[in-house]
Amino acid sequence: MLNVITADAQTCHRAEYRVGQECCPMCPPGNRVNKHCTEFTSTSCEPCADGTFLDQLNGQTECFPCKTCDADPGLKVKRPCTTTSDAVCGPQDGFFCVDRRGDGCVAAQKHRSCKAGQYISRRGTAITDTECSDCTGETYSNGTFPSCQPHTKCESEGLQQIRPGNHAADSECGPKHDSSNKTVIIVPVILVAVIIVAVAVAAAVMRKRKGSRTGIFLSLV
Questions:
Q1: Which among 166, 96, 172, 171 is positioned nearest to 134, based on CA atoms?
Q2: List the disulfide bonds (predicted).
Q3: Contact assessment for residue 41 and residue 26, using Cβ atoms and an 8 Å cutoff
């Protein structure tokens, strides 16, 4: 039954709202007031349109617009909007919340990237940033490792070190130069050269002898 405000009753009941001198029944959550009550009629309510909501008993003539999580590039929808509740936003993957409101987030920031020479000592979460620590000793990290890795020992792998490692990069290894292979290649080359020289010398000697015999023969004739 409609309550009329009098001098003895200055306020409406908790489930009512005041319009002029009258107390009208509120609309339930998810609905707005289409027509206020009168002395002879009750409040007329209608559901909120898509993209709007009202989460409490109310005397509102307009529903509230739902929050848009994509207004911040680091946010995503954690819980979608309904006619009885607003959307709840959360940080996207790779981001963490820097401004929390209840169980939602209104601003997010990208997780820190560790530098070369650092490792990820604690991965970032939806509410905390990534933590980085420096490598020490003979270890390295490119900034994406969960721990620093020891430098490769080239000699232990049968290789030779081309470039020593540092905190930002591993040692660079390459194949060893095999001196025995060089010897195997060089010896035949030397032998061939010696044979060629010997053949040339022998040929020259034979030509010289042949020339000498020819001269003797001519002198006898």
A1: 166
A2: 24-37, 27-45, 48-63
A3: no
pTM beyond 0.85: no
66-110 sits in which CATH class?
mainly beta
What would the DSSP string read from start to end of 98-154?
Answer: EEEETTEEEEEEEPPPPPTTEEEEE---SSS--EEEE--SSEE--S--SSPEEPP-T
Residues facing residue 44 across a β-bridge: 35
3-state class of 200 per DSSP? helix
Which pLDDT tens digit goes with each residue over 139-170?
Answer: 999 999 999 999 999 998 889 999 999 999 99
Q: How confident is the model at residue 24 (pLDDT cuts 50, 70, 90)?
A: very high
Which residue is associated with the tokens 């169980």?
Answer: 103
Per-residue pLDDT at 55 exceeds 50: yes
Confidence at 111, pLDDT banded by 50, 70, 90: very high
Residues 121-129, mean pLDDT to the nearest whole number: 96
CATH topology of domain 111-171: Tumor Necrosis Factor Receptor, subunit A; domain 2 (2.10.50)
SS3 content of the chain, % helix, strand, coil (to 5): 20, 35, 45
